[in-house]
TrEMBL record:
The MIP18 family-like domain, residue ranges: 12-84
Domain of life: Bacteria
Protein name: SUF system Fe-S cluster assembly protein
Pfam family, any one: FeS_assembly_P
Length: 107
């Protein structure tokens, strides 16, 4: 039996953790809201998360990326986490999942 961890499985585990983080102004998790643009995991189990906020003036601009970093870092096999904020492309409701739109009564 090997001690290696499948980076795809780890990616799924990270997504599971991201789905426990909610935007305080919208009752939907940040993953379903479309705030997470990409999750990269390398062979050393270092994670880079590319994310955005609903607006550059978002009141949680400092705390939300830190919460993403801390919760992702809490996964046992993760060795390091970098969270990069981007506003290119800017977030729009088009990035929301069908589940999020349904939750917010937009469907």
């Amino acid at each position: 039996m090997s001690d290696t961890i499948d980076t795809n499985a780890l990616g799924e585990q990270i997504v599971g953790v991201l789905k426990t983080i909610y935007d305080p102004e919208i009752p939907v998790d940040i993953y379903e809201l479309g705030l997470i643009y990409d999750v990269f995991v390398n062979e050393d189990y270092e994670v880079k998360i590319l994310m955005t906020l609903t607006s550059p003036n978002c009141p949680v601009a400092e705390s939300l990326p830190e919460e993403v970093r801390e919760k992702t870092k809490s996964i046992d096999s993760v060795t390091d986490v970098e969270v990069e904020l981007t506003f290119d492309p800017p977030w729009s409701q088009d990035l929301m999942s069908e589940e999020a739109k349904l939750e917010l009564g937009m469907l």
